[in-house]
Amino acid sequence: MAHTELDLRERRLIEDMLNAKTPVSRIATELGRHRSSVYREIKRNRFVDEELPYLNGYYGMVAQKPASNRRARRCKLVRLPDLREAVIAQLKAGWSPEQIAGCLVFECQPQRVSHETIYAYVYGPEGQSSELARHLPSRRKKRRPRYGRKPRGLVFPPDRSIHQRPDHVKTRETFGEWEGDLMNFERAQGNANIASLVERKTRFAVLFRNNDRSTTHLMNRLMTVMEPLPQPARRSITFDRGIEFRSWRKLKPGIGTEVWFCDPQASWQKGSVENLNKRARRYLPRDTPVAALSNRNMKAICDRLNGTPRKCLGWRTPAEAFRDEMMTLR
């Protein structure tokens, strides 16, 4: 297992548990660390003031600063100014970190540095303050985690394919089968977006705002919205393979809802929610300031969509059809 240093969250937890008179061995168990690591952390980063001894103790925020400073001193590009200036000059000349590190080895320079160290410096506090990342070929403000991307086949396994979905869902025979999607907006609106859900049999629509694009946030919001419905009214949801749905596994244990996925680039396989999105765009164009929309605004839009008669429902409204189906569950 790779060595990982204590972070601020762990240091705050140590502080809280020490204040609660928790034994160090118990703290180590809670953190999943060896007790020697916790003892060493407390001893090394304990705050001591000879003039005000009553303030002596372990403080997570105070401990984080010297730990960060020690870590920075270990970086060659912090300790060796000549090497740092040479690397920065080559970065500004358009060299990649791999080219810089390889050239140092090729020229047998006494001071060398790996490309990983250069990347760490560029995306560290010193490099960010100098905006060094803009000189990289990729020009990303934040570095993508190494080995972080998982194969889509593991995220969306074959047994969750729409082709494994029961036939009665396709024929709209049963109530409680939903489709879901995410409505995105102009970049100027930030991370805010709107999730759209539609019940396949009744065409009943649900729209709710998200202030975050993360999959965890989306799935937690979705469960909060769906949980008030009885179980037969939330049997399944069909999504596309957007990475925002990668935490789909939460839905089965969370609210007892099965999840199915369309084929790649086959949005037509969830045509009901695509049709809903098209209708909703009349009220939610791409330049909509989503963050300013209140829950009342979202409900008003849903009420208008669900209050419009539909030919496929025999000119009933989705709200009427949904209410009739809910009555049969009682």
From TrEMBL:
GO terms for molecular function: nucleic acid binding; transposase activity. Transmembrane segments: none annotated. Residues 162-326 form the Integrase catalytic domain. It comes from the Bacteria. Keywords: DNA recombination. Residues 131-163 are annotated as: Disordered. PROSITE patterns: INTEGRASE (PS50994). It holds the Pfam family HTH_38. This is Transposase, IS30 family.
